[in-house]
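Quick check before the chapter quiz. The format below is the same one you will see on the exam, so make sure you can read both the input and the output lines.
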Amino acid sequence: MLPPLHRRSALHPPTGSGGSRLGPCAKSAAIFAAALGVLCARAGAEEMVAVSSKVSPGYVRKTLADGSLAPRYYVFGKGDTMIGAMADPTIDNVAFMDVARALARGLVKNQYIPAPNPGSVDELILVNWGTTRPIDKPSESHGYRQAQRSMAMQDDAAQQLKTATSNTDKIAAEQKMDDANNQLALSLDEVEDEDVKRENANMKTATILGYDSWWIATASAMDGSPLGRRKQDMMSELEEERYYVVLTAYDYRLLTAKKKSKLLWEARFSIREVSNQFDTGLPKMISVAADFFGRDSKGLNHVDMPEGKVEIGPVKSLGPVPGLGSK
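Here is the expected output.
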């Protein structure tokens, strides 16, 4: 059985300020400010590849007499795929071998060579790819829309109070204001619940994409601070659809001989879906990420995506690999 997609230890989401609850007016101001921040952050987005890579302790590449890296021989394993929320032929029609061909060109830059035979395999490189599926943006959530309607109802009630000419009209306007206040309180509670769900979804996406270092670094950031703006940039990226590839490399001999999974290194890289296509963008993504294969990136890196066309040569399949069947 192939080893599962490697998962890091749980990330630590930012905590609230002592569990205090905001009043309806303060809450509503925070909601709309957050939504505006997301829109502004996205307006200046650039075409960049986000790359994060790690190596396990003790994983050291051998070198040859001339100082160059000694080759490491690998076979690919097909991992998980994540389908986007909408049909996208630029990734839906991409087969595993299409991804493998593109990866082989990048891996060879660091002397990772397709194994000529099963007996020479050093590493099993598990390939996972797909499109992230973020939940509704803050401004599109049910609670947010309900809060908008409640605040509009408050405005109407306030206007009716100003223009009331009879006690009956005043009582009706006051009742409408009470109803609006109650609805707003309920909708803001719903928004808080939605925010918790969004936080959890973003944390999961951060783990998949390799944004965990950025997440932890900005966990305690205050809104409006330089670190808070970095956090908003991160959230903007996590809350948009992104094409991604995750490589996890395992010790092949240990896996086949003792059925034990030992992670050697991993690489996670992605680009935003908007304005891109997975099939044509994949070679460009890999040309950037290849510099980090088998190395520690020291956190998340954003690198300009190259322009032009990247040619991909043929890749040979060894067929079924012995020792990777079900236990």
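If your answer matched, good. The two ends are 6 Å apart (CA to CA).
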